[in-house]
């Protein structure tokens, strides 16, 4: 049995939003001491690395929290009860116009376990058909296609910093070996 645990004594939701909730729960630590745990409650998301002929598809998008544009794989939040694979296919088509005949699970990551319970489900999409992108009305994206090797060099140089994107690309590169 794992001796590292925390027992929830009282759940306290301070804020309920459309995307996340902010909580400050009272807990009992494994040594018996009381503590508070602040965290962001999030229903999770799905992201997809789309690859065709040695090239991957990304989106460049302004991220307000960082005050800069990032290059990322297509991704989005899960709707209540939504299957992550369906969400990945939906986001791929919305953001890039691509439809994938093959989408396979590629891992689950915890983007920041120190303060959120968010899980990101990562998928690999292949056998792609091009179509028309139709992003959400508040999304302003630019689709970018680049060779996998170029994207890996951007990780090495620090130009590509999004965690889910780095994870997916590095996992893909390892799968080729």
Map the helices and strands:
Layout: E1 6-10, E2 13-16, E3 20-29, E4 34-42, E5 45-52, E6 55-63, E7 68-72, E8 75-77, H1 84-96, E9 99-109, E10 120-129, E11 141-147, H2 148-157, H3 163-175
Parallel strand pairs: 5-10
Antiparallel strand pairs: 1-3, 2-3, 3-4, 5-6, 5-8, 6-7, 6-11, 9-10
What's a concise summary of this model?
The protein is an alpha+beta fold. The protein has helices spanning 84-96, 148-157, 163-175; strands at 6-10, 13-16, 20-29, 34-42, 45-52, 55-63, 68-72, 75-77, 99-109, 120-129, 141-147. The chain is elongated and about 55 Å long.
Distance between the termini: 37 Å
Number of E-type strands: 11
**What's the main sheet like?**
7 strands, mixed
Tell me, rounded to a whole number, the average pLDDT: 95
Low-confidence stretches: none
Instruction: Please state roughly what percent of the residues sit in beta strands, choosing from under 5%, 5-15%, 15-25%, 25-35%, 35-45% or over 45%.
Output: over 45%
- Label the CATH architecture of the largest domain: Alpha-Beta Complex
Count of alpha and pi helical runs: 3
Q: How many whole angstroms does the radius of gyration measure?
A: 18 Å
Query: What form results from the Cα inertia axes?
Result: elongated
Q: What count of domains describes the coordinates?
A: 2
